[in-house]
Amino acid sequence: MTNLNNPLYSKLKAGNKSAFQELFEEYYTSMYFYACKFVDDDLARDLVHDVFMIFWQNKENITIKSSLSAYLFRMVRNKCLKEIERQKVRDDYNAESLNLDELAYYNDGIKSIIELELEEKLKKAMDKMPDGCRQVFVMSRFNGLKNKEIAEQLGISVKAVEKQITKSLKILRLELKEYLPLLMYIYFNGRDFL
Fold first, then answer.
1. Parent domain of 11
2. Is the predicted pLDDT of residue 44 greater than 60, yes or no?
3. CA-CA distance, 56 to 134, in Å (whole number)?
4. Given this model, what pLDDT does residue 163 score?
């Protein structure tokens, strides 16, 4: 039945409260279960109530071209998707806030638990490097020397320095694969570390 021929739709547009009550009783449960496919139970209840409120408040301006039920379910879906997007933005903001709180430790010169744990992991990984390899790595990544400067100080070729750095980076990538993004940010401020 199209909405033009649907007496409930006509009554709703005219502001009939008993028609609205009938609509609510007929569709609430199925709309709630539909919303639960997108969001948790409590939020589903709230969103479905919001949909009914929006529908009632805009009843005179609503033009439904398909069926009334299709229109209501589309409203529920859109409301749920908007809420999911809003939560994602909020979660991203909260994650960013947590990162900023954590970084406040570094700016204040106080070592956080995460930083101490990373230092320990880095030391253990570096202990697995051969001595020459570790020495070249420290000179390059911690002391900021260029390959040519390292070669001159150690009396080896630039090619040998490059080989030692490649070897040390391979060891670190393997040993610290879970910690690389955080390690790069904390110790090297986004510079090329690995």
1. 7-92
2. yes
3. 71
4. 93
Task: List the one residue out of 113, 167, 174, 119 whose CA is nearest residue 140.
Answer: 167
Phi-psi region of 144 (alpha: psi -120 to 50; beta: other; left: phi over 0): left
| DSSP track, 121-185 | HHHHHHHTS-HHHHHHHIIIIIS---HHHHHHHHT--HHHHHHHHHHHHHHHHHHTTTTHHHHHH
Q: 59 by DSSP, 3-state: which?
A: coil
Q: Residue 88: exposed, middle, or buried by beta-carbon count in 10 A (0-12, 13-18, 19+)? A: exposed
Residues 87 and 154 in one domain: no
3-state secondary structure 168-192: HHHHHHHHCCCCHHHHHHHHHCCCC
**Count of domains for the chain:** 2
Q: What is the pLDDT of residue 159?
A: 94
16 or 92: whose pLDDT is higher?
A: 16
